[in-house]
Amino acid sequence: MTVTITQLISYPIKSCAGVEHQQTTIHTMGLATDRQLMLVDKNGLFLSQRKHPQMALIQPEFSAQGLIVKAPGMEQLTLDFQRNIYSPLDVTIWKDSLQAELLHQDVNQWFSDYLKLPVKLVKYGAQSHRPIDPDYAMNEETVAFADGYPLLVAHEATFNQLNQYLQQPVTMDRFRPNIVVNSQFSPWDELNWISLSNDEFKIDLVKPCSRCVMTG
Hints:
mainly beta; 4-stranded mixed beta sheet; 4-stranded antiparallel beta sheet; 10% helix; globular; MoCF_Sase_C
């Protein structure tokens, strides 16, 4: 049976709003622009909507000038990665510690002003290395700043059935998928899928995703 991709979504800054793509590049670490940036506190610990729900209103978008970032009450910020000078910074995301690249102070001040606490924006860099859970890795794959795995795939049939059980329907973006697919399979059938593939790529589906409070 055919499975059709209906949405491609990346989240350039971890735990901030997503960007939908008509087409994008995919590699072993997921979508090329997905979660390559992350906000950390003064101790290098990652920030998320779980404790800072206002991060959901930070909206990145891509332009010819670089990555544009908008947020309520803030002037527009443009990140030019070609001109930025990075310095190394040790960061922690969940149980993983790694070296990331720190962006310059003006950028950090913008995010600090919006969140009303001192934060820094870091980039997954050439020296960064974060292996995925070895229980599910096929070839020692790595991941950037996603919680655990390079891609999250969602099935429209399951999502539509879920909404039938809810008094107030939710939108797909609540689940923060990277790839949304449509098919003639029944709801929940994706729990038995092993992989998705075509002539150009193959995605191994190693485990279901446990969603957190951010979904609610």
